[in-house]
Design brief:
heterodimer, A: 14 helices, globular, disordered C terminus, B: alpha/beta, Rossmann fold, 6-stranded mixed beta sheet, 4-stranded antiparallel beta sheet, 8 helices
C-alpha cells in the first residue's frame, strides 16, 4: 500500500517532466511556416537563430507561466478549501488588466508599436497591478484571519478594478484591441530574461509552497483541527497569499490572463493520483506547465502562419479534458464537494 | 481554587466567550480532573461546543484556561498540540485525502517540520485506525466513505495524537450502536492509561457512562458531579425542563423521554 501511494505521484511527476521536455523539443520545430524537421533546423543557421531567440524562450516561457499558474491554483484551492478557487481569486486578474490599461493609456500606444520597450513597461505594470490588487484585498479583509472575508474582498476588488479598467477603455477605445489580446493571453513576447525571471520566481514559490504544505494538509481538515495540531495557521496563510500574489503576478505580467490553467491543473492531477499538498503543488505545477506548453504549440501551429490566442486553447483543452474526466468518473473524484 | 482529589488536567476561570456578536458563555468556572472521563451535557445552545473550543484554545475569550497547571497561552503551540487533542463537530474534511493521510495528520505535532514519519508515528496511526476499525479502508479517500465511517477516521486522527488530554465534540455523530459501544471501550481504555477525556454528548444515556458530568444551560454551568449521583440526574432533568427522566436499566443510567 505504502509503495503504491509513494510511487504513483513520482511516476506522474516523471511523465509530466518528460512530456514537457518532448513538447519543448517539438516547439523548436513549430514556426509560422508550420512544422520543420529537427534536422533541418539543426543545419540551418537562420533557423537556429529563430529557434534560439524566439521559439525556445517562448516555449520555455509558456512552461514557466503554466507552472506558476498550476502552482498558484493548487495553493489557492488548498488555502480556500474550495475546488473552484483559482489563482485570480484575490483580484490579481483585474489588477493586472487595470495596470496594463493604465500603462497603455499613459504610453498612448498599442504594444505592437514598439514591442520590446512597451512590453517592458507593460510587464511591470501588469505585475504591479496584480500584486497591488492582492495587497488591496488583504487590506480590505483586514488580514487573513477570516477566509470568507478574504474571498469577498477579492471579489469586490476584482469588480471595482475591472470597472475602472472598463472606464479607461470606454474613454480610449483605441486600446480595446490590445487589451483584448492581453485578456486572452499570449506567449509571443517572452524572451530569455522573462524565462529566467519566471524560473527564479518558480523556485522561490515552490520552495515556499513545499515548506508550508503541512499547513495546507492540516487546513483540509478544517481550521479548528489545523490550529489544534499546533500549526501557525494565520502567519502561514499570509505567507501563502503573498506567494500566490507573486506567482500569479509574474505569470500574468509575461503572458497575460491565461484562462483555466490554474483551475484545471490541480483537478487533473487529483483525478490521477491521491497525494498530500507537498506532492500536489509540485504535480499541479508540472501539469500547468505541460498544459500551457502544449496549448502554446497548438496555438502556433493550428492556423499557421496565423496564430490563435493561447488562452482560448487552454480553456478549450483544459476545459474539455476536465469535462471528459467528470463525465467518465464520479464527480467526487475531481474534487467537487457533494 | 479548591483542592481536588486528582490533579487537574484543565481548569477554567471566568470564561466569557461570544460567537460573532452574540455572548455564548457568561462567566464559566470549570475544573477537569486528570485521568478521568468528563462529559458535558445540556440542551441545544447551552454553549457546550463553545466551551470545548475555549478549553482547546481555539476561540478568543475572556478569563483564563490552565492546562496541567500552566496557562494555555503560555504553552508553545507544538507542545500544547502534543498534550491536547481536539475533535470538532461538523468540521469540513478534505475528500481527497486518504484515510491513512488523515490519521497521519494527527502525528504532525510529534514530527519535525517536513520530516518523515518515524516508526512510532506509523505505529500510532495503525493503532488508532485499528481501534476505530478504519484500518481496512486506509487506502480509500474520505470522499469514498459514509458519514459514520468518516467520523471513525476523524476519531482515529484525534487518537493518533496520543495526547494526555482529549477533547471530543459529539464524537458519536453518525455512528451506529455497535461503533458507539466501540467508542465507549476506546474511551475507557484511554482513561485506564491515564488519559483525560472530555466529551460533549447530546445523548444523555451515553454521557452518563462517564465518570463525571458537567451540566450546562444558557451559557452557564448549573451542576458538576459524579454521573451516578442523584444530584447530577436532577440537574440534567432540570435543564431539560423535566422532559427527560433518568432511570437505572440493566446496570446503566438511561435517559428516557417523559411523555405527558
Amino acid at each position: 500500500m505504502k509503495q503504491w501511494i509513494r510511487q504513483r505521484p513520482l511516476a506522474l511527476a516523471a511523465a509530466l517532466a518528460l512530456l514537457a521536455l518532448g513538447l519543448l523539443v517539438l516547439g523548436t520545430c513549430v514556426g509560422s511556416s508550420g512544422l520543420q524537421g529537427l534536422e533541418e533546423v539543426w543545419h540551418d543557421p537562420v533557423a537556429q537563430q529563430i529557434v534560439w531567440e524566439i521559439r525556445l524562450p517562448r516555449s520555455a516561457g509558456a512552461w514557466g507561466a503554466g507552472a506558476l499558474l498550476g502552482l498558484a491554483g493548487a495553493v489557492a484551492q488548498g488555502l480556500f478549501r474550495n475546488p473552484l478557487a483559482d489563482p485570480y481569486l484575490l483580484g490579481s486578474a483585474a489588477g493586472a488588466s487595470l495596470g496594463v490599461c493604465v500603462a497603455m493609456a499613459l504610453l498612448g500606444a498599442s504594444p505592437l508599436a514598439a514591442p520590446w520597450l512597451v512590453q517592458l513597461g507593460l510587464t511591470g505594470a501588469a505585475f504591479l497591478g496584480a500584486t497591488g490588487a492582492v495587497l488591496l484585498t488583504l487590506a480590505l479583509a483586514r488580514g487573513v484571519q477570516q477566509t470568507l472575508r478574504l474571498l469577498l474582498a477579492g471579489v469586490v476588488v476584482g469588480v471595482v478594478l475591472g470597472a475602472a479598467g472598463s472606464l479607461i477603455l470606454l474613454v480610449q477605445p483605441q486600446l480595446m484591441q490590445a487589451m483584448q489580446g492581453f485578456m486572452l493571453g499570449s506567449t509571443a513576447l517572452v524572451g530569455w530574461g522573462a524565462c529566467l525571471l519566471m524560473l527564479g520566481v518558480w523556485c522561490v514559490c515552490m520552495a515556499l509552497a513545499w515548506a508550508l504544505s503541512p499547513v495546507l494538509d492540516g487546513l483540509s481538515l478544517g481550521e479548528g483541527t489545523a490550529l489544534s495540531l499546533g500549526l501557525p495557521v494565520v502567519p502561514m496563510r499570509m505567507a501563502l497569499v503573498l506567494m500566490l500574489a507573486l506567482a500569479t503576478g509574474t505569470a500574468v505580467a509575461h503572458t497575460g490572463l491565461i484562462a483555466f490553467v490554474g483551475l484545471a491543473a490541480p483537478h487533473l492531477v487529483r483525478a490521477m493520483v491521491r497525494a498530500g499538498h507537498a506532492r500536489l503543488v509540485l504535480l499541479s505545477s508540472l501539469m500547468g506547465g505541460a498544459l500551457l506548453l502544449g496549448a502554446d504549440l497548438l496555438a502556433r501551429s493550428l492556423i499557421a502562419p496565423g496564430e490563435l490566442p493561447v488562452g482560448v486553447l487552454t480553456a478549450v483543452l483544459g476545459g474539455g479534458y476536465l469535462l471528459w474526466l467528470m463525465h467518465r468518473q464520479n464527480p467526487l473524484a475531481v474534487g467537487a464537494k457533494p | 481554587m479548591t483542592a481536588a482529589l486528582h490533579p487537574l488536567a484543565l481548569s477554567a476561570r471566568g470564561i466569557r466567550a461570544r460567537l460573532g456578536a452574540t455572548p455564548v458563555l457568561h462567566g464559566v468556572d470549570l475544573d477537569i480532573e486528570a485521568g478521568r472521563w468528563t462529559s458535558i451535557a445540556g440542551p441545544n445552545g447551552a454553549g457546550k461546543s463553545t466551551l470545548l473550543k475555549v478549553l482547546a484554545g481555539l476561540l478568543a475569550h475572556e478569563g483564563v484556561v490552565h492546562l496541567h497547571g500552566q496557562p494555555l497561552a503560555a504553552w508553545p503551540a507544538r507542545q500544547r498540540a502534543q498534550q491536547l487533542a481536539w475533535l470538532g463537530q461538523n468540521e469540513v474534511a478534505g475528500d481527497d485525502l486518504t484515510v491513512w493521510d488523515v490519521a497521519l495528520l494527527g502525528r504532525l505535532p510529534h514530527q519535525p517540520w517536513l520530516g518523515r514519519p518515524s516508526a512510532r508515528d506509523w505505529a500510532a496511526v495503525e493503532d488508532a485506525l485499528r481501534a476505530t476499525q478504519a484500518w481496512d479502508w486506509r487506502e480509500r479517500t474520505l470522499g469514498q466513505l459514509s458519514g459514520g465511517e468518516r467520523q471513525r477516521v476523524l476519531l482515529a486522527r484525534a487518537l493518533s495524537v496520543q495526547a494526555s488530554v482529549l477533547l471530543m465534540d459529539e464524537p458519536l455523530a453518525n455512528l451506529d450502536p455497535p461503533h458507539q459501544v466501540d467508542w465507549l471501550h476506546i474511551v475507557r481504555s484511554l482513561v485506564a492509561r491515564g488519559t483525560t477525556v472530555v466529551s460533549v454528548l447530546h445523548e444523555i444515556s451515553m454521557a452518563l457512562h462517564a465518570d463525571a458530568v458537567v451540566v450546562m444551560a444558557q451559557g452557564r454551568i448549573t451542576h458538576q458531579g459524579a454521573c451516578a449521583h442523584p444530584a447530577s440526574h436532577r440537574a440534567l432533568q432540570q435543564v431539560f425542563d423535566g422532559r427527560i427522566a433518568i432511570h437505572a436499566v440493566a446496570g446503566q443510567w438511561v435517559a428516557l423521554a417523559r411523555t405527558p
